[in-house]
Amino acid sequence: MAEIPKIILRIETSVAYGRGLLYGIAKYSRIHGPWAFYSEPGAEQTALPHLDKWGASGIITRIPDEGKLDQLVINGLPAILIPLKEKIPDFPNIIDDCATAGRMAAEHLLDRGFRNFAFCGFSDMHWSRDRRENFTKRIAKAGFETQSYERPRAKVVCYYQKELRLLAEWLNLLPRPVGVMTCDDEHGRHAVEACKVAGLHVPEQVAIVGVDNDELTCTLSDPPLSSIAVNTRKAGYKAAALLDRLMTGREKMAEKKIIVRPLHVVTRQSTDVLAIKDREVAEAIRFIHRNAKRPIQVSDAADAAALSRRVLEKRFRKIMGRSVYGEINRQRIGHVAGMLVDTDQSISQIALSLGYPSVKHIARSFRREKGMSPLAYRKQYGFK
Length: 384
Hints:
The chain is of the alpha/beta class. The chain folds into 3 domains: 6-96 and 232-260, Response regulator (Rossmann fold), CATH 3.40.50; 98-230 and 265-271, 3-Layer(aba) Sandwich (Rossmann fold), CATH 3.40.50.2300; 279-381, Arc Repressor Mutant, subunit A, CATH 1.10.10. It is 48% helix and 16% strand. It has helices spanning 16-32, 51-54, 69-72, 98-111, 126-141, 160-173, 185-198, 215-220, 232-247, 279-291, 298-305, 309-320, 324-342, 347-353, 359-370, 374-381; strands at residues 6-10, 36-38, 58-63, 79-83, 92-96, 117-121, 146-150, 178-182, 206-211, 226-230, 256-260, 262-266. The strands form 3 sheets. Strands 7-6-8-9-10-12 form a 6-stranded mixed β-sheet, with helices on both faces. It has a 4-stranded parallel β-sheet with strand order 2-1-3-4. Strands 5-11 form a two-stranded parallel sheet. Strand 8, helix 7 (185-198) and strand 9 (206-211) form a beta-alpha-beta unit. The protein starts with 5 loop residues before the first strand and ends with a helix.
């Protein structure tokens, strides 16, 4: 009987990101294993046993920086790393698609009519910097600037109450209304609390969107935090598959990227607002967002806004930079994309539930909006 591989998992379980990776790893083990796991609950800082005596076959570990390699990776042990600060050369790394996350957050806030923008995150974390740079880039493309707040890392200023005051002071200096992206959900929750300290209203004066869609963190926030959902489960599954190949010698240790891909924005109360002065256009947008799961027409949006179709089209395009039909199609395809990732429904079932006349029609609209077929999208972003 073949020996069961022993895998060390040093992945934080107190946040949804780590739990998602572990879920994917566990699923791979159930299908292709079994594997035996060493994993302690809580944070990844938990002390490890004498690894040399346990006879580990491989490790998937969170790692602060390259200087900790010797402490966390036994010489010659197949390893996949989740870098905290900077990517680690010569090893497979699980990293985030920060370009897409930054763009998604920017477009989410732009779509709500914001013209003032800000980012809140770390300066010494590669994933936070990358998210900020890509958020700022997309905002700049739309013709606006982004203010940035870099969270202090020194212990002397990291006490919660003191940092909250610093963040509140920064938020109070921003032009309002302002759309804010935070580097993750914990930062988003802190930003919401800082708004309370500053006497600012969320989302009317400050709209906030985070990343990772940690449901507990997002719902603990008051008001609940909007966030970008990411496919950690699929990344965990892929990491386990690569580790399997490394342990069996089918692949050699080398620098590779396992990408955690953003899926969509989960809108909660922290961004459930329209910063659009034109009341009729705002009403048309609200109507589209609320009814995008059914086959609505441009004339329906015009009726909701109490405007003629021609007048609505002209004012809508001036403010939003696209047609009313373009917005309807974009919102409906967004629902299609979410169902492709979150459900096992067939394309024909999705088409029927959303009122599309045929699979051919939904496929044509989807490819035009997303640049790929529905099946290709499900394969790239869905979880097996």
